[in-house]
Amino acid sequence: MKKIDAVIIGGGPYGLGLGVLAEEIENFEVLVFEREDSLEWHPGMLLDGTTLQDAFLADLVTLLNPKSPYTYLNYLHEHDRLHAFFFFEDFEVPRKEFSSYLKWAGSQLPTLRLRREVTDVLETGDGYMVKVQNYESGEEETYETRHVVLGTGHEPNVPEFVYSLPSRDVFHTSRYLYRKDEIKEGDTVTIIGSGQSAAEIYYDLLQRKRDESFTLNWYTRSGGFFQMESAKMAQQLFSPDYIRYFRTLPVDKRKGTVDDLSKLRHGVKGSLLESIYKELYHQSIDGEPLTTTIMQTTSLEDIEEKEEGYTLTLHHTEKDELFQIHSDKVILATGYKPRIPDWLERFENKIVWEDEHVFKVDDHYRIVREEESKGHLYTLTNLEYSHGSGATNLSLSPYRNATILHNMTGEEHFRIPKNSVFQTFFPKEEGL
């Protein structure tokens, strides 16, 4: 049985970034296990022309160590694209290129293990025994480790009544590119949700309507199709300074603050909303009906399969009225929820819970236990109520990872930024 310092479950940007940072610490061994055979990032939503909502500096490591060989700029340099990016003159990263960057970083990281799924975690006296299914060899591997890090990411959040419906017709946005050709089979396509993914798909299909005849619907339960808050002063809430402040609030204040700041995480880029409006305007010039419906304050209550297509029951929340529409294809832009592994249930009575679904997380991103333990369970996800609405923003990932590594090793290996924003979050008396 191989003994290591930490097992990182999940090779997404968070887990991969932690593995990258750990490479800089001598005599500290980690392994990153990823069940997929590739590090593709949201492959079902890699639409042409789409970009991240974060700047290129929000890569795996730059904001903590810009000298690292794993920076996005070094990726561009290694692929002879640095000058091309310079002339691109855009802070935002094309989504396809970010996915390629993650693959490249993973290929450089010797501690990454693809096609390995952590199937169980058992507690030992000094830490944990981790069981891993190796899909390459077909064998089960066992590792002994002091610490375990949950980087299991998120999974689609869809209503239960969707599970029994054919996935070729009713599917989450994460499957869009896989189902895009099949959408052509439908005379009516309906999108549910109003975030960035919903808007990107609506715009993609709206452009297709120039050459194809179909009805396109877009409904959201939100009060409108709102632009994501991008003001620089507001964006400072995505900072280590704000997280330190947020951690001092009682749990009820933290929950309320997360809801109040939802526009920082949800909503649509202003440029995309503008493009959608311009496309609608151009398609309406000849006076022909647009055959598209865009409606807010409307929630999806049920989907019933018919002999041909589906009947959607919708609820207009302001009018408090139910109505039904027909649709051949339904795309659910209903967001994501944390992916919590089944084995964590074993620790259910040993973990401190802040409410029924949210476990307590301390300043070091450790899941708080009822009793002290020599080894710890750390988490990279499910942090919005413990560390704030921006806690899982890509730009904060290096800071979070450094905090975890400092706690694991008992030493400060990286300089964590302080006073990184112009705002002050703690009350203080002045001029008295």
From TrEMBL:
It comes from the Bacteria. Its cofactor is FAD. Pathway: Siderophore biosynthesis. Keywords: FAD, Flavoprotein, NADP, Oxidoreductase. It catalyses: L-lysine + NADPH + O2 = N(6)-hydroxy-L-lysine + NADP(+) + H2O. This is L-lysine N6-monooxygenase MbtG. Its EC number is 1.14.13.59.
